[in-house]
Inverse folding.
């Protein structure tokens, strides 16, 4: 499960406070910058002159912004590219070497090999690109100043804004080219690593056919394909560290089909290439390439409707509830109790035939959690059911309540199971005001149930004393797949956004610091950005007045004290002045300060979109937009800071 | 003649008021002062003390002085590479911090601070772009300048492979890429061999003939004497002398007579006449060529007639030297 937060771009911008944070940070930075400039200038020239100098610097920014010429910016960008070509080649060589070494360890085996590939490749690309971005941008300007080559540049009609922006463009271009090559190589590496086929380990003679009796194979398993009449005791050959079971399905025309099970996150298309002419028993089959492990599902999740939440729960009496707490576990899932009136209602919108390619069926993907209070029949899974209902407009009393027949299913944990709902549903019920219920009606999914694209989906757990866990992302309509390759590109856009932010940060720092200091500072800010979510969590926890919400161990200085003295987290600090000082420093200085600072840097963690690819989901446009806007805004802010720092720097005094 | 100024008044303030621009005054400084400070803002070195200067259009102006006298500081202040601690400076009537003034300026730094991974062509193309020059103009000017500084044969070699003299030449070419009205040369002959030095001086004179203003700083007196119209002599950040070179070098209480083919008797008669007029003959001798001229003559002669040449005092010596 990768989706824990559902944020639309507008929600993020307006409701989650992104715009407000931006305005706040901008004002704080602007005021701090002006004050700092005034103080420094006052030391040099006195307050009166300082006021004039600061005003002049601010007003000169206008012509420096509008007087920029593309040719000059591009000239500096080209120079930055040429300057770093050698590092570009070295970085690429390191990545290729990393791929070659990784090829020894990452194979196509395992439960979901694509997840290992994506996790490694994205991590490698992200780390390498980040290091490259810091190295190129941290040393360029300081080296120019140190070697005085900058003298021949700033004595030309080049504006400080062009020097800063030109470098950003140059580094961004060379970084983008590097990222594109790294992305292309890693994609080919992954696809080639996963690609494989199988052969039959031996011929499937009839004596190898194991009949399915009462829904179970002779060794007591559920058949992997419910249509199968037989399973074969002959498996495929082992390749990429796995084999596939095979099932035999008898077709209506008397012929037999062979299907392979889903192992290691994929299956194969099986083509019968030779059959017995009399019995039509398959003798030779051919396996296609792996299918199902490199995918990008296009989910339609439930969404809030008016005042109603996207997902609401009821308790065992049918009253609104927040779900059952089944213990101290990840509280992502909310549980509904089986065999009672407890339900989970998902509210969908935007369900139109075009989104499902006007198909005769609609796929519903389920990713439910299960909590058993007793073992029950171990061969059986927990049973649940869904029911589809149209959305009744309370303003129009004549709107009929239409609901489908209850569709039972067995839950499968730890995997995405798909329920196929036919477009024409039988045995539906239509209940209109003042009229008797019409039962056993054939319903059209889109015309009768998802009218105007809106639909309610109700989930119940059937088994008594068992619980089914749901979250908003647990159930979604699967509107086909998008191209995995394109999704891969979108995943790399996250790394690209991060690269831009790092480049801008290092350039801004390099306008007033020396290269090694820029390097350390940039890495520090990036690490801080990566930890920002955690810092806010710790700060909220320690600063909370609710004692239950307080984290063990306290803030940074208390944690350091415990670390040095090897004191247990739960052991109270000894009373005294020292403890009071520690708590004061944590609660009044460090944590509020760190929390405030965390709003000025991007949450670098959020740029990592690898999980979407690893779990086979299309990366949402809104999420991508949020990431890109975050990076661009941060980069723009850094450019402005870099411009003023460079503009007010005495180049030859270095 | 001398307009030496005293040390800048303590706490000299920046004066930002604009003055009416006289197009005949290319550079103007008033009480220009530079004090280098440490991290905490404490004064460390007073590099320039209240410099008052005017450089007029079309002249070659020399800033002269020993090391540490404030020549390079003055040029850096004029170019905006340093900010003045007091006083004011304008170029073409614009403050030195104004970027647009650079459109008419060419600058050759003390050492050629160029990007060593670029070739000569790429270097000139890069600096041409910084002047927002279209590609045809850049190509044309780059080719012309590479030819002019004699680097056509090495135009596609990266500068890291250049000798110091070659680097100075390409440095000079980048300073002229925009056909500037004002050329500022910081130690222009530094690192050049005698031939290169002479070419540099010829070029400075050529620039003057084209109506351009040249400001150069050097501690090589001969270079300055050869090309400058006016000079300013700085010492420990203070202006000690300012004026036309010919006027400054003129020894007004001495006369020099140069004649050819004079006999011993005639020389004695001249001495007698001078004695009767109250004068005293100090010396009568053949005029001396400069070492630089001698060296250049030899080089030119060697280039024209390869092989061994006559040595002074041998039978081949025809006495023209």
């Amino acid at each position: 499960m990768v989706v824990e937060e559902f944020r639309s771009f507008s929600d993020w911008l307006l409701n989650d406070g992104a715009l407000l944070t931006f305005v706040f940070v901008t004002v704080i930075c602007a005021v701090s910058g002006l004050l700092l400039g005034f103080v420094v200038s006052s030391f040099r020239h006195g307050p009166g002159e300082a006021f004039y100098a600061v005003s002049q610097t601010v007003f000169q920014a206008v012509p420096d912004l509008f007087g920029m010429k593309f040719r000059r910016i591009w000239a500096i960008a080209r120079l930055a590219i040429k300057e770093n070509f050698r590092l570009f080649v070295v970085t690429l060589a390191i990545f290729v070497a990393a791929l070659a070494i990784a090829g020894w360890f990452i194979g196509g085996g395992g439960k979901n090999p694509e997840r290992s590939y994506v996790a490694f490749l994205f991590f490698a690309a992200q780390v390498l690109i980040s290091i490259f971005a810091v190295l190129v941008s941290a040393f360029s300007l300081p080296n120019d100043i140190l070697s005085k080559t900058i003298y021949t540049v700033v004595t030309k009609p080049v504006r400080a804004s062009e020097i800063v922006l030109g470098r950003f463009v140059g580094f961004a271009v060379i970084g983008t080219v590097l990222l594109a090559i790294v992305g292309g190589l890693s994609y080919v590496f992954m696809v080639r690593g996963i690609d494989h086929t199988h052969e039959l380990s031996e011929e499937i003679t009839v004596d190898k056919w194991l009949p399915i009796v009462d829904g179970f194979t002779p060794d007591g398993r559920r058949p992997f394909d419910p249509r199968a009449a037989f399973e074969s005791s002959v498996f495929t050959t082992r390749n990429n560290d796995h084999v596939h079971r095979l099932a035999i399905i008898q077709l209506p025309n008397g012929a037999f089909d062979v299907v392979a099970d889903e192992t290691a996150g994929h299956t194969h298309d099986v083509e019968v290439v030779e059959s017995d002419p009399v019995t039509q028993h398959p003798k030779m089959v051919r396996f296609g390439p792996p299918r199902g492990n490199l995918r990008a599902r296009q989910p339609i999740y439930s969404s809030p409707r008016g005042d109603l939440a996207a997902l609401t729960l009821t308790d065992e009496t049918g009253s609104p509830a927040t779900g059952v707490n089944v213990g101290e576990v990840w509280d992502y899932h909310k549980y509904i109790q089986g065999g009672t009136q407890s339900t989970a209602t998902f509210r969908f919108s935007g369900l139109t035939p075009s989104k499902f390619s006007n198909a005769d069926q609609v796929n519903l993907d389920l990713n439910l959690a299960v909590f058993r209070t007793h073992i029950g029949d171990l061969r059986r899974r927990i049973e649940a059911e869904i029911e589809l209902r149209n959305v009744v407009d309370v303003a129009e009393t004549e709107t009929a309540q239409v609901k489908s027949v209850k569709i039972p299913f067995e839950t499968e944990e730890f995997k995405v199971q798909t329920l196929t709902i036919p477009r024409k549903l039988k045995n539906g019920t239509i209940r209109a005001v003042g009229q008797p219920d019409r039962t056993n009606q054939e319903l059209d999914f889109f015309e009768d149930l998802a009218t105007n694209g809106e639909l309610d989906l109700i989930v119940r757990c059937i088994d008594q004393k068992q619980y089914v866990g749901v979250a908003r992302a647990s159930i979604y309509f699967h509107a086909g797949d998008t191209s995995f390759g394109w999704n891969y590109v979108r995943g790399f856009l996250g790394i690209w956004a991060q690269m831009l932010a790092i480049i801008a940060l290092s350039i801004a720092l390099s306008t007033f610091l020396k290269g090694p200091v820029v390097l350390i500072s940039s890495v520090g800010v990036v690490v801080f950005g990566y930890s920002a979510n955690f810092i806010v969590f710790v700060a909220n926890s320690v600063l909370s007045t609710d004692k239950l919400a307080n984290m063990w161990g306290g803030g940074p200085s208390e944690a350091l004290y415990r670390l040095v003295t090897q004191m247990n987290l739960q052991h109270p600090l000894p009373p005294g002045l020292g403890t009071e000082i520690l708590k004061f420093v944590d609660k009044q200085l460090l944590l509020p300060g760190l929390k405030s600072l965390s709003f000025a840097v991007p949450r670098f963690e959020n740029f990592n979109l690898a999980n979407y690819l690893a779990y086979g989901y299309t990366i949402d446009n809104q999420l991508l937009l949020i990431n890109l806007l975050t990076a661009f805004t941060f980069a723009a802010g850094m450019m402005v800071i870099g411009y003023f720092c460079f503009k007010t720097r005495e180049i030859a005094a270095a | 003649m001398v307009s030496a100024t005293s040390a800048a008044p303590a706490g000299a303030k920046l004066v930002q008021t604009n003055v009416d621009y006289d197009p005949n005054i290319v550079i103007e400084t008033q009480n220009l002062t530079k004090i280098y400070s440490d991290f905490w803002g404490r004064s460390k070195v007073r590099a320039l003390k209240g410099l008052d200067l005017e450089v007029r259009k079309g002249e070659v102006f020399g800033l002269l002085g020993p090391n540490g006298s404030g020549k390079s500081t003055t040029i850096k202040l004029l170019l905006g590479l340093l900010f003045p601690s007091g006083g004011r400076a304008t170029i073409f009537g614009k403050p030195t911090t104004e970027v647009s003034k650079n459109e008419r300026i060419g600058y050759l730094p003390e050492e050629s601070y160029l990007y060593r991974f670029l070739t000569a062509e790429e270097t000139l193309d890069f600096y041409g772009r910084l002047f927002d020059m279209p590609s045809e103009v850049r190509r044309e000017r780059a080719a012309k300048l590479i030819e002019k500084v004699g680097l056509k044969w090495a135009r596609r070699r990266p500068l890291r492979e250049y000798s110091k003299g070659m680097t100075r030449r390409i440095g000079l070419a980048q300073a002229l890429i925009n056909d500037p009205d004002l050329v500022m040369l910081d130690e222009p002959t530094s690192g050049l061999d005698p031939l290169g030095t002479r070419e540099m001086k010829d070029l400075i004179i050529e620039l003057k003939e084209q109506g351009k203003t040249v400001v150069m700083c050097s501690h090589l007196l001969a270079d300055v004497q050869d090309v400058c119209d006016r000079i300013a002599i700085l010492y420990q950040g203070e202006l000690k002398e300012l004026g036309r070179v010919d006027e400054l070098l003129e020894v007004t209480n001495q006369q020099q007579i140069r004649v050819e083919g004079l006999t011993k008797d005639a020389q004695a008669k001249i001495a007698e006449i001078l004695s009767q007029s109250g004068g005293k003959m100090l010396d009568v001798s053949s005029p001396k060529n400069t070492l630089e001229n001698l060296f250049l003559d030899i080089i030119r002669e060697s280039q024209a007639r390869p092989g061994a040449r006559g040595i002074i005092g041998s039978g081949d010596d025809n006495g023209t030297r």
Remarks:
- Chain B has two domains: 25-249, 256-306.
- The CA atoms of residues 230 and 243 of chain B lie 5 Å apart.
